[in-house]
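Something for you to look into today, if you have time. Could you write out one complete protein record for me, on any chain you like? The space below this message is yours for that.
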Amino acid sequence: MLMIAFVCAAADRPVVVPIKLLGNFPVVTVDIDGNDVSLVFDSGNSGSVALTQAVIDLVKALPTGETSRGMDPKGNVIEYPKFKIHRLQIGTAVFTDVIGELDVHDPSYQATQVGQQGFLGTCLLKGYKVVLDYPHRRMTLVPPGNTKDQSAGCKGTAVPFSPAWHGEPAAEADIDLGRLTVWWDTGAPTSILSKRFAEAARSHQSGDTVTSKRLTLGGTDFGPLQFELDDLSLPPGFDGFIGYNFFAHHVVCMDFPGNRLVIQFEPKAARMTRPHTSLKAAEGRNSAVSAIRQ
């Protein structure tokens, strides 16, 4: 069900990939068959790559004749035509015969445009520890078998992935409203809670946001954190997203081989002075809740 790719020349040492933060989204440049392509890294997307039709035509990707299905956060079911590209390179990590899909969105829920030519999901990176360092504008892919010094960026509080989500970066947390499961989603320009969860917690919020003084993960309190409240069509047991306003101030390691997050702690004084970016100011989200693809 997840997109399949074969590693041709997986890096044997950490790969440092520069990122640009555009409209609160991390954008990386990858090489697809000799062409530089700008992709939003979307950890809320469990596929490999989703490319615009213009890029598919440019790299002469071959249609497979198959499609996959997915649901966006508004409940729209979408068909994604699949295609195969010969070679994709991220830094020094090379992948061949990558099965990707066309970047398709429902008219009622379009992706925010920041100049991207598609999206990079988590499928190709499942063999790595992915260290996201927004403050230093870089993403590091740490391969299996690395030494302790090489994995220095993957340190801090360990938070296990939720077993219900089968190796995707979703984890349980405690906030002022109670215990919940949130997806660590680089495709979300801010952190979001479903109104369903807030109502079930008997939270009587008069506005569109809620600030939790507490955000406890792996026994460490990373609060406060502000969440937007939104009408999201999410599967049961999935309550929202941790987005840009958390990643912007922490180094977060998505340790896919270890099925866990590892988060570097930020002093509380620094957390209290964080700027907040409204979901409405960012004019939408790019994440697609693609873990429920068929």
Observations:
- The longest helix spans residues 53-59.
- The CA atoms of residues 29 and 38 lie 5 Å apart.
- The mean pLDDT is 85.
